[in-house]
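Retro notes
What went well: the complex prediction finally ran end to end.
Inputs used:
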Amino acid sequence: MLVSVYRYNPETDREPYMQNVDVSLPEGKDLMVLDVLNLIKEKDQSLSYRRSCREGVCGSDGMNMNGKNGLACITPVSEVVKNGKLVVRPLPGLPVVRDLVVDMAIFYKQYQRVKPYLQNSSPASGRERLQSPEERAKLDGLYECILCACCSTSCPSFWWNPEKFVGPAGLLQAYRFLADSRDEATDERLSELDDPFSVFRCRGIMNCVSVCPKGLNPTKAIGHIRDMLLSRAT
Amino acid sequence: MVTNVLNYGRSGVHDWVMQRFSALVLAAYTLVMVGWLVLNGSDLTFSQWQGFMSQTWVRIFTLLAILSLAGHAWIGLWTVATDYLKKGAVRVAFLGAVAISLFVYVVWGISILWGF
């Protein structure tokens, strides 16, 4: 199988280029894209990419495979290969550090901005802060995010305004704490988001939903935030 | 919170509501105008058209539609400009031209409707 890999080493290359590698796949086995990269790296140690758990939990190996973002470790080659060719590029819209490794600083900055932690200044009862099963159920589909950045880097609004638009990953987490019955900072959180960029740059094209390797729905969460802002303002 | 001075209402919710409200007005106006033209259009005379447009409710509705168009266009083009025009000077020049054009359209529209 022909694999075309994005290569860029800022110390030696003047500009990025696509490297074509012919990889012989084992018969009768559907490898994951990460396995293919490992096969390439066995022959060419200079190829750089992030990976850790290799089972879709750590979120390290987010990359763009034949035009669609996803985790290389849980994406079968058969699912993405087109005309016998696999094209692997780094996540779009972020600065490339080297080969498939991107600088995620702006992504984490937007995550940090939504204060992704529980804020509650009332003294605790001496036990845990309890939730009813219904209150807990509101967090399903929100807490599972692994911050792989597949969604935010597939979002044109995030490409054009990464400093101002929080992005789907950050907004999913923003809603995770807005929806939490134990959090007391709802009003402050909403005030931070009530400008034309942070939330409202979302145009609802749902690229985030289509690429999320955990099957989450940031667009829906953004809709809930918009509803909360709207009912607070009217 | 991201600050900015050139958007319509300085608040995301405000712009969002305005964009949807103005869209509803424009949709209703389009339906009324197209509907009237379909009913009367085959042998329409100038005096019929002028008579229709000189009714008070049509004038008010038309002015509302012109104002909605101006607001809608401003929010939409401000959004497009802040997405795609990355150089501050270019963006301000573009938005200035948009603002002046919209102002001219509104004043010109009023002058046509009430014929100063």
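What we learned: The longest helix of chain B spans residues 12-40.
What to try next: split runs per interface for comparison.
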